[in-house]
Design goal:
Blueprint lengths: L1 H12 L2 H27 L6 H16 L6 H20 L9 H8 L3 H22 L1 H6 L5 H35 L7 E4 L2 E4 L2 H30 L2 H22 L9 H4 L4 H4 L9 H25 L5
């Protein structure tokens, strides 16, 4: 099995597209970082942090006097006023400008690019063998089809993990070089109490929750690529569902079946923000639904590959 995985890994890195994906992940981190640094230096203000906080309080209080505010907006404004007043009363300045942790929080949103490139790999790693005819040569080896398909699946996830590590490491390096370590303190409201924000803990939690969409999109693309032998169909369909998933869920929201559609649960970051796509769902329920769909996707992929006639 290890030799099969090693072989798939070497084949993957012999493609120019693989190197292009890694280069793009790095560029979309460095580029915005340089622009953020440039505009940060341009927008530097002469006001003290106390004056900025006073302006913030005045602005939010003015916003509260306007009509037609939702409950969520009113709560948000009141919390921001409380945070600013706490800073002034306790001499706790907030972080000024960028920092390595704030920059990494920004680049964590670029994990969708990592998911996209992993989807492309998952879609083509099986289908390309059929389109080029190399699948016949591959199946002549004294290895079961199940092991061959498993090696391709493992290689796909290893590549996705590699891109994730590249995203995190490059973000940390660029953030440290351009912005340095944070100065000041980030605060948040938790159960009515003002506490220091656990920035690194929140960032790690975001990375963990992002795995939901990453894993499900990859498995779905792997399924389509294995069953239909078409990488373009797998990439297109997976991306279509990714970009229209929210609309599909909203369209089905009036029906009970929406709770059992994997698109409703794949974006686990909804539990981080609190903006649930469907009221009443919970993290354990979402994980259960995703696990069931993952097993189904894998079962169909393996059954199709095991029974596929490669002489056609």
């Amino acid at each position: 099995m290890l030799k099969l995985i090693q072989n798939e890994w070497m084949k993957l890195w012999h493609k120019k597209g693989t190197w292009a994906m890694v280069a793009l992940v790095i560029l979309v981190i460095i580029g915005p970082g340089i622009m953020m640094k440039y505009y940060e230096s341009k927008s530097a203000e002469d006001l003290s942090w106390q004056e900025n906080e006073q302006q913030t309080i005045a602005g939010y209080k003015e916003s509260l006097t306007t009509g037609d505010l939702s409950v969520e907006d009113k709560k948000y404004f009141e919390e921001q006023i409380a945070l600013s007043e706490y800073r002034l009363a306790n001499d706790v300045p907030q972080q000024t400008g960028g920092s390595v942790d704030s920059f990494m929080s920004f680049t964590s949103n670029m994990l969708t690019l990592v998911t996209l490139f992993t989807v492309i790999t998952a879609a083509s790693i099986v289908s390309s063998e059929f389109s080029t005819g190399t699948i016949k040569m591959l199946l002549t080896r004294p290895m079961s089809r199940a092991k061959i398909l498993t090696s391709k699946l493992v290689t796909t996830f290893l590549f996705g993990l590699f891109l994730f590590v590249v995203n995190v490491v490059v973000s940390a390096i660029v953030g440290f070089v351009l912005f340095g370590v944070a100065t000041g303190t980030e605060l948040e409201m938790v159960n009515g109490q003002i506490v220091e924000k656990a920035v690194w803990g929140d960032l790690s939690y975001h990375y963990l929750l992002s795995a939901g969409d990453f894993v499900m999109s990859t498995l779905f693309a792997f399924l389509i690529g294995s069953v239909f032998r078409s990488s373009s169909l797998a990439i297109g369909l997976t991306m279509f569902l990714s970009f229209t998933g929210t609309m599909i869920v909203m369209f089905l929201s009036k029906y009970e079946i929406v709770k059992y559609v994997w698109l409703t649960h794949s974006n686990l970051t909804q539990y981080e923000t609190g903006g649930l796509m469907i009221e009443g769902i919970t993290m354990p329920f979402s994980l259960t639904i995703l696990t069931i769909y993952a097993v189904v996707f894998l079962a169909i992929s393996y059954l199709s590959f095991m029974k596929r006639d490669v002489t056609a």
